[in-house]
């Protein structure tokens, strides 16, 4: 990755009308409906953006969408990139750097995850308070990283405290159940064994997924305040583990999605 590549990607999007967005939003598996709230949308397909990776997962559409939500300019990633698709950490996080170049001041992230904390249920949402990176690498581990920011990035509070509190208040006001916890990210794409779920619970994880943490690390590198919410699509109880049904996971995400859209829309209104 070079600064010139980033500049080319950014200039292409500016030429399409992507004008100084304030907020970047990354939509996870089954969570594409937020784009329906965007007014005056401008769409750029990933395969047309210079140096952008291509989305390969069939239920991830590959579009960057610019417009307004609650009167604020946003740029939304509909379809994200994962290590399990064969991308590397620089590919996965490249869009975050492009959105930052476009001018975003804040980043919202959503994902679908499995509930490891047995007090959490399928269909719940979880606000990320902290995370554990089990993906075996870092998006900052490349030779010329210092051209883009500090090599050594503090991660003592990776998720913005002020936006987290606002989301907690919004959830309480709107009568939306919002759990809080620690997210662990693994490579995938296989799901976990019973022994692995037990290990993750012992490590202190409340939910497990295959995304988000690389983007969060890069956002911290760029000093972008982040808030992230998981939609819990299955219950990972090793003593009562059922075979996974990906279609059911997508359906659960879809049913819970209106609540997540409400949370993010209200947060956009308040910041």
UniProtKB/TrEMBL annotation:
<dbReference type="InterPro" id="IPR011270">
    <property type="entry name" value="Pur_Nuc_Pase_Ino/Guo-sp"/>
</dbReference>
<dbReference type="InterPro" id="IPR011268">
    <property type="entry name" value="Purine_phosphorylase"/>
</dbReference>
<keyword id="KW-0328">Glycosyltransferase</keyword>
<comment type="similarity">
    <text>Belongs to the PNP/MTAP phosphorylase family.</text>
</comment>
<feature type="domain" description="Nucleoside phosphorylase">
    <location>
        <begin position="23"/>
        <end position="269"/>
    </location>
</feature>
<comment type="function">
    <text>The purine nucleoside phosphorylases catalyze the phosphorolytic breakdown of the N-glycosidic bond in the beta-(deoxy)ribonucleoside molecules, with the formation of the corresponding free purine bases and pentose-1-phosphate.</text>
</comment>
<dbReference type="GO" id="GO:0009116">
    <property type="term" value="P:nucleoside metabolic process"/>
</dbReference>
<keyword id="KW-0808">Transferase</keyword>
<comment type="pathway">
    <text>Purine metabolism; purine nucleoside salvage.</text>
</comment>
<protein>
    <recommendedName>
        <fullName>Purine nucleoside phosphorylase</fullName>
        <ecNumber>2.4.2.1</ecNumber>
    </recommendedName>
</protein>
<dbReference type="InterPro" id="IPR000845">
    <property type="entry name" value="Nucleoside_phosphorylase_d"/>
</dbReference>
<dbReference type="InterPro" id="IPR035994">
    <property type="entry name" value="Nucleoside_phosphorylase_sf"/>
</dbReference>
<dbReference type="GO" id="GO:0004731">
    <property type="term" value="F:purine-nucleoside phosphorylase activity"/>
</dbReference>
<dbReference type="GO" id="GO:0005737">
    <property type="term" value="C:cytoplasm"/>
</dbReference>
<dbReference type="Pfam" id="PF01048">
    <property type="entry name" value="PNP_UDP_1"/>
</dbReference>
């Amino acid at each position: 990755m070079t600064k010139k590549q980033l500049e080319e990607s950014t200039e292409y999007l500016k030429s399409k009308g992507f004008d100084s967005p304030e907020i970047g939003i990354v939509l996870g598996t089954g969570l594409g409906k937020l784009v329906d709230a965007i007014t005056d949308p401008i769409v750029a397909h990933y395969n047309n953006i210079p140096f952008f990776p291509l989305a390969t997962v069939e239920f991830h559409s590959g579009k960057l969408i610019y417009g307004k939500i609650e009167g604020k300019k946003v740029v939304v990633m509909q379809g994200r990139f994962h290590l399990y698709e064969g991308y590397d950490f620089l590919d996965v996080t490249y869009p975050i750097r492009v959105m930052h170049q476009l001018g975003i001041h804040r980043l919202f992230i959503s994902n679908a995850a499995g509930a490891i904390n047995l007090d959490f249920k399928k269909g719940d949402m979880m606000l990320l308070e902290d995370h554990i990176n089990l993906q075996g690498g870092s998006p900052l581990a490349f030779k010329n990283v210092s051209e883009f920011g500090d090599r050594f990035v503090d991660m003592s509070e990776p998720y913005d405290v002020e936006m987290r509190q606002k989301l907690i208040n919004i959830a309480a006001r709107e009568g939306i159940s919002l759990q809080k916890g620690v997210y662990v990210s693994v490579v995938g794409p296989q799901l976990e064994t019973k022994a692995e779920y037990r290990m993750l619970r012992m490590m202190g994880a409340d939910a497990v997924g295959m995304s988000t943490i690389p983007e969060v690390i890069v956002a911290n590198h760029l000093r972008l305040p982040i808030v992230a919410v998981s939609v819990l699509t299955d219950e990972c109880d090793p003593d009562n583990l059922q075979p996974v049904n990906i279609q059911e996971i997508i359906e659960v995400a879809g049913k819970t999605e209106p609540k997540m859209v409400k949370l993010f829309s209200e947060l956009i209104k308040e910041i």
